[in-house]
Design brief:
Layout (H helix, E strand, L loop, with lengths): L4 E4 L2 H6 L2 E6 L9 H16 L4 E6 L4 H13 L2 E7 L8 H8 L3 E5 L1 H4 L5 H10 L4 E2 L7 H7 L12 E6 L3 H10 L4 E6 L7 H13 L6 E4 L12 H14 L8 H13 L8 E6 L5 H9 L4
Parallel strand pairs: 2-10, 3-4, 3-6, 4-5, 7-8, 7-10, 8-9
Antiparallel strand pairs: 1-2
Length: 299
């Protein structure tokens, strides 16, 4: 499915002679938006081919991946199980309310137990408990997810020099880099504090998928705003101004931080004059309701 490119124009871009487009992956699907759709696409096909009837995955209480997996299960006829980090809190937050409304069964585990999510013994225990489900990793990132994310770039019909994307587990960026096969320049904006480890993670994901190593990308780690799912007033102010000017909603975990960082780099003169830049909107807007509920502010 194609998603539109929307060009952004303002005095900063004009001053620095940078052309900027945002690729609206958030418009792919109302409930399975952006990179979550891309990551799930081939995994759903694999689950169906292997005749699994249940999808089981992992995430925090506000996880975009949990919400998207629940919606995909409802849409394509799979039972779904979400293994949720931490204790149950009632009433459920908007993300988990949505997940259960799609039929997802939630299993809460302690943070200590959750750290075993890749442990074969724990996975075997879950597999026996839920009758051999198709297991998706936290964030949905695996080789099939990387394959799906290579397709993000296929319908970009303009010429461009740079492509920018937020990064959590690294799967989306790995897919974009693999899909470009050494062309263009890719900027990955880490949403995590201390995100330097993603350099190795992304390299490994690329190599596992394509058996290639590429050097046309850079990891940007300066715009995490305190860490994963952490926000600061200047980020919220930027997001509100961005939506007011461009009528494009952002969210504070990934796309808000990426766009803040991208505009800051433009302000610093990072991009040569005449550069043409595409930023990927990876969706995740479902999380805004939870932020509003938790923080009492509009995002």
């Amino acid at each position: 499915m194609e998603t539109p490119l929307q060009q952004l124009k303002d005095s900063l871009l004009q001053e620095h002679q940078v052309a900027l487009w945002i690729k609206r992956e958030d418009l792919l699907h109302p409930d399975i938006s952006g990179n979550k759709w891309r990551k799930l696409k081939y995994n759903l096909q694999e689950a169906e081919q292997l005749q699994h009837h249940t999808l089981l995955t992992f995430g925090g209480a506000y996880s975009n991946h949990i919400a998207a997996t629940a919606a995909a299960g409802k849409a394509f006829g799979f039972k779904t199980v979400g293994v949720i980090r931490g204790e149950e809190h009632l009433p459920l937050n908007p993300t988990l309310r949505f997940a259960t409304s799609c039929g997802m069964q939630l299993q809460y585990v302690s943070r200590e137990k959750y750290r075993q999510k890749d442990d074969p013994a724990f996975l075997q225990e879950l597999s026996e408990q839920y009758y051999q489900p198709y297991v998706l990793p936290e964030g949905g990132t695996n080789n099939l997810a990387v394959k799906g994310c290579t397709e993000i770039i296929e319908d970009i019909a303009i010429d461009y020099d740079y492509i920018c994307c937020a990064s959590g587990t690294g799967g989306t960026v790995a897919g974009i880099i693999a899909g470009l096969a050494g062309e263009k320049q890719v900027l990955a904006f880490s949403a995590l504090k201390g995100g330097d480890f993603l350099q190795k993670e992304i390299q490994q994901l690329i190599y596992k998928y394509s058996v290639q190593t590429y050097h046309n990308w850079q990891l940007i780690t300066d715009y995490h705003f305190g860490g994963y799912a952490k926000v600061k007033p200047e980020l919220l102010t930027f997001m509100q101004a961005f939506q007011s000017q461009y009528h494009i909603p952002l969210e504070p975990v990934y796309t808000g931080k990426m766009m803040y960082g991208l505009f800051d780099l433009i302000r610093q003169g990072y991009f040569p004059k005449g550069s043409r830049v595409v930023a990927i909107h990876t969706g995740g807007l479902q999380g805004n309701a939870g932020f509003k509920e938790r923080l009492g502010v509009e995002v």
